[in-house]
Amino acid sequence: QVQLVESGGGLVQPGGSLRLSCAVSGSTFSTVVMNWYRQAPGKEREFVARIFSAGGTVYADSVKGRFTISRDNAKNTMYLQMNTLKPEDTAVYYCQFGSYWGQGTQVTVSS
Which tens digits make up the pLDDT trace of 7-22? Predict the structure, then answer.
């Protein structure tokens, strides 16, 4: 049974940082392309970042230069380092691969 579990969300002031984690079980993590998505209140879910099995990355324009996606295949875990956070980054963040999604972790950027 495949499970994705996100953690690391919380409340942070504008300009602050957070690191999200996504722990994957029940799958060959090292071979899959992993994604982060987010959904803000009243908005559609949107793509944030992608990391390929060999480590290549893709970012949404809105987070490029501020967010960094990474993975540790030995720990079956993906990360999203989020710096210089803005109020518009407030959303529930989800990790995903294939047809599998995590439950989400809330990120709130507010003073």
Answer: 999 999 999 999 999 9
The answer to whether the CB of 34 falls within 8 A of the CB of 50 is yes
What CA–CA distance (Å, rounded) separates 32 from 46? Answer: 20
Which DSSP helix (H) or strand (E) runs through 48?
strand 46-51
Element (H, E) at 61: none
**Which element (helix H / strand E) includes 104?**
none
Q: How far apart are CA 87 and CA 58, in angstroms?
A: 22
- Rounded CA separation 75/82 (Å): 20
Q: Are 43 and 107 in contact (CB under 8 A)?
A: no
Tens digit of each residue's pLDDT (9 = 90 or more) over 23-35: 999 888 888 999 9
What value does the CA radius of gyration of the chain take, rounded to a whole number of Å?
A: 13
Which tokens belong to 74? Answer: 């030995």
Report residue 28 as tokens. 């060959």
